[in-house]
Amino acid sequence: MLPVDKVIGKVYPIFGIALIAMAAGLLVVLLSGSYAIPELTTLHNFQLNPDKLPIIPTLFITIACGAISGFHATQSPLMARCITNEKKCRSVFYGSMISESVIALIWAAIAMAFFHGPTGLGEQLAEHGGNAAWAVDVISHTTLGKVGAVLALLGVVAAPITSGDTAFRGARLIVADIFKIDQRPILKRFAVCIPLFVIGYGITLINFDIVWRYFAWANQTLAAVVLWAIYIWLARKKRNYWVALIPALAMTFIVTCFVFVSPQFFGIENKILAFALAALSTVALGYLANRRVDPAIVISNKSESN
Q1: Following CA atoms 109, 110, 116, 120 in sequence, which dihedral angle do they give, to the nearest 10 degrees?
Q2: What count of other Cβ atoms lies within 10 Å of the Cβ of residue 146?
Q3: Cα gap 116→298, rounded to integer Å
Q4: Among 203, 206, 217, 208, CA closest to 263
Q5: How many CA atoms lie within 13 A of 91 on its CB side?
Q6: What DSSP letter does each residue of 23-87 carry, written as one string?
Q7: Is the pLDDT score of 301 beyond 60?
Q8: Which of 19, 56, 107, 233 could form a disulfide with 155 if both were Cys (CB 3.0 to 4.6 A apart)?
Q9: What is the mean pLDDT of residues 176-184?
Q10: For 18-55, what is each residue's pLDDT tens digit?
Q11: By C-alpha distance, which of 168, 228, 174 is closest to 196?
């Protein structure tokens, strides 16, 4: 309900600092303590059920909010409103992407070291229903004590809350833009927010594991769409479009592969067939995107439709 600069610009940095401080503390524990970080030198799948959870595409769907994230793409316009100078965008957006990746690597290392390898980590998570929050709580309390517990509360527990806040905020602004609803009057904000809250409450009644799987796939699918849009824009401007084209192709293959492999969708057990269909889908979508690069084609299509 509140403006972006009243919450995100003033309160969220506290959670970000806590998250970074916790990661830094865990890194010190890793380097100075008696923990041994396992060296993974192969692409062996350490999942307890590797046949149902192949590394490709499961790994890239599981890590739903990493360096490539459709959800973060939707939040970029909100974050941009908190920046006083456009020159700061590189350090803010690129810096946060790299920071999040480093934090993820630290957590991956401490989790495997704490539970004595990826197999032990998988077994412990399986015993606790795959609850990653439980692992975070145990690791933080054991390695960083009460300070770690506070940092975990601020940095990890608050993260989903802030994600929910920004998701609702982004949805409110999107709906308001589509239907041209002025958001300055408070009553008009309620008119948009209340239906969204009702929908959000309805989603909470569904098993979270199921919601998360669909969200993770939708998130990476949105990332692929954004990357294709960036590719088309860069190509039209005759700039270096490879920085968007390569990840767009990769993520398109991943999300289409998940559609063919996952039992949530088609659930094709023949992995070779599923991968082949994903490759064909990627080529087809790449061809359609490439047709949008040439403005003459776009103008021609519009003229025909008119």
Answers
A1: -80
A2: 9
A3: 56
A4: 217
A5: 6
A6: HHHHHHHHHHSS--PPP--S----SSSTTTS-HHHHHHHHSTTSSS-HHHHHHHHHHHTT-S-GG
A7: no
A8: 19
A9: 91
A10: 888 888 999 999 988 788 888 888 788 888 788 888 88
A11: 168
Q: Give 9's DSSP letter.
A: T
Q: What is the pTM for the complete model shown? A: 0.80
Q: How far is CA 292 from the centre of its chain?
A: 27
Q: What is the pLDDT of residues 199-255, one digit of tens each?
A: 999 988 988 778 888 888 999 999 999 999 999 999 999 999 999 999 999 999 999
Q: How many CB atoms lie within 10 A of CB 3?
A: 12
* CA-wise closest residue to 39 among 109, 107, 92, 122: 109
Q: How far is CA 98 from the centre of its chain?
A: 13
47: left (phi > 0), else alpha (psi -120 to 50), else beta?
A: beta
Cα separation, 231 vs 290, whole angstroms: 9
User: Nearest to residue 30, comparing CAs of 134, 98, 105, 106?
Assistant: 106
DSSP state, 115?
T
Q: Which residues contact 71 (CB under 8 A, 6 or more apart)?
A: 64, 65, 163, 167, 219, 222
Identity at 185, one-letter amino acid code: P
- CA–CA dist 76, 70 (Å, integer): 10
Instruction: Enumerate the H helices of 180-294 as residue ranges.
Output: 186-204, 208-236, 242-261, 271-291
Cβ atoms of 100 and 23 within 8 Å: the answer is no
In what helix (H) or strand (E) does residue 128 lie, and over which residues does it extend? none
CB 18 within 8 A of CB 157: no
Q: Give the sign of the dihedral formed by CA 25, CA 31, CA 33, CA 37.
A: positive
Cis peptide before 57 (omega within 30 of 0): yes
